[in-house]
């Protein structure tokens, strides 16, 4: 990344971090209901992937996908309003934390069901090939999703039809609260994609420049007709699986060892060495977050009479 792109990457990561820290506070204050799953620590993957995608490209993501959608440039005002269940939310307050969707920016949807976005992405990629449209679909999922049948069915179809789809596995070492090595027989999730003869690579998900470079190259290859690619991002979440998680399945020492490489800190250090005003960026992000919270709190609640708008009822 050149200096300007690295500044952009840091700004995106900082925005994701502060957005999610703010969600944590709002949840504690009962402004948000249900459950939330934060990606604090994993921001380099979101920023690197989002910045490497072209405007026409598509994305599917998971219930831990706030950052991925922010990186696709959906205004955080609308995302914050969605979190608070307001009519001005990106999905009019009806989707909430686990269902962010913004088709205008290629975000085909987050999904609360593990691995559900993977076949959706393969379907979108099939449409691109069938209709001869110039977009690549990126699907982001966790390491635990590689145990789902939908994962294997989707990879098989993508390989057979050589579809324009990029599989991005965020391996944060835990399938919710279970260490991934306890439930899979391989060392790397990329080995599973190799079984389908899909080019597969392991990436340092704590280095936004490495993520960006790997995704950019993969998308270029896919767009040129070379078929699907699988990237395994080695990353780590610095918070629990969900709000209230006691984290008894891992040690504090392990968490602290990953904090040393926090992608926000390491990227900030690089920029500071280039003479960039990090404090100025942080202050600007803080103003944006405060604006988003005010916008959300001042927005109207959905009208109950319109509850079923957009809902399909089968016969």
Task: Show the helix and strand layout.
Blueprint: H1 3-28, H2 43-52, E1 58-60, H3 66-71, H4 76-83, E2 107-109, H5 117-131, E3 137-142, H6 149-161, E4 165-171, E5 174-175, E6 178-179, H7 190-194, E7 200-204, H8 208-226, E8 229-234, H9 252-259, H10 263-273, H11 278-298
Parallel strand pairs: 1-2, 1-3, 3-4, 4-8, 7-8
Antiparallel strand pairs: 5-6
Please provide a written account of the structure.
This is Acetoin:2,6-dichlorophenolindophenol oxidoreductase subunit alpha. It comes from Paenibacillus abyssi. Its cofactor is thiamine diphosphate. One of its GO terms (molecular function) is pyruvate dehydrogenase (acetyl-transferring) activity. The protein has 315 residues and is of the alpha/beta class. It is globular, with a radius of gyration of 19 Å. The protein has a 6-stranded parallel beta sheet, sandwiched between helices. It has a two-stranded antiparallel ribbon with strand order 5-6. The model has no long low-confidence stretch (mean pLDDT 96). It has one domain: 3-Layer(aba) Sandwich (Rossmann fold).
Judging from the principal axes of the Cα atoms, what is the shape? globular
Taking strands numbered 1, 2, ... along the chain, how are they ordered across the largest sheet? Answer: 2-1-3-4-8-7
Most strands sheet = 6 strands, parallel
Q: Roughly what is the average pLDDT, rounded to an integer?
A: 96
CATH architecture label: 3-Layer(aba) Sandwich
The SSE string, one letter per element, is HHEHHEHEHEEEHEHEHHH
Name the CATH superfamily classification. Thiamin diphosphate (ThDP)-binding fold, Pyr/PP domains
CATH fold title: Rossmann fold
Name of the CATH first level: Alpha Beta
Organism: Paenibacillus abyssi
Domain Dehydrogenase E1 component: 13-304
Protein name: Acetoin:2,6-dichlorophenolindophenol oxidoreductase subunit alpha
GO biological process, one term: pyruvate decarboxylation to acetyl-CoA
